[in-house]
Amino acid sequence: MQPEAEFVHWLFATGFLVLGICLLAESIVGPEVWGRNPWRPHLWPGAMFVMGICMWPVMILFTNSTIHMVAHSAWAQVLMLSGGAELALARGKLTSRYWHLTVGLALIVSGAASLVHEQNAWLFSRSAFVHHALGWVMVGGAIFPIARTFRPRSFVLGAGFAATFLVVSVLLYSHRDVADIFGHLSPVAGAPHR
Fold first, then answer.
1. Which residues touch 93 (CB under 8 Å, ≥6 apart)?
2. Distance separating alpha carbons of residues 50 and 32, to the nearest angstrom
3. 189 and 123 in contact (C-beta within 8 Å)?
4. The domain spanning residue 110 has which CATH number?
5. Is 175 left (phi over 0), alpha (psi -120 to 50) or beta?
6. CB–CB of 94/77 below 8 Å?
7. What is the pLDDT of residues 23-58, one digit of tens each?
8. By residue range, what is the domain housing residue 27?
9. What is the pTM of this model?
């Protein structure tokens, strides 16, 4: 039996919540204090890499169109790329700070894929609204990891980076396949679930 799509979104919302909390904690205490424990610098990049791996079964089992398959595949690839690059940086295998730009790339690609794969208008259903909002939050939030590459100790950039993932998490938790948004549901969307 295949679970509802909203449950899969909620699982990834939990992953983004973990990323946001780790990044927020790192920005509050600073990278030096965060890095005192040898496993902590690997925590959020590892979670991002695992989320990329988990996106592959979503691409295979939970897609209903080619555009959804391509979007989920793109998300899987950029999550694994950015998570792997951050893990290699934390491990010391990569030394150039420009590898941090892969997270910005991941947010831009993920945001664009979210916008492209939602073919309905903003107020068609809650699912359509969430996908549009996710896309713009990720595209706009890409400025934080890109700027953080050049100012790694900035609290504002670190907190903005963490907030991007926390907002993505909240949006994914609010996902429902067919439910009204702001009291509106398109008559062609179907019967609301809840």
1. none
2. 25
3. no
4. 1.25.40
5. beta
6. no
7. 999 999 988 898 898 899 999 999 999 999 999 988
8. 5-173
9. 0.85
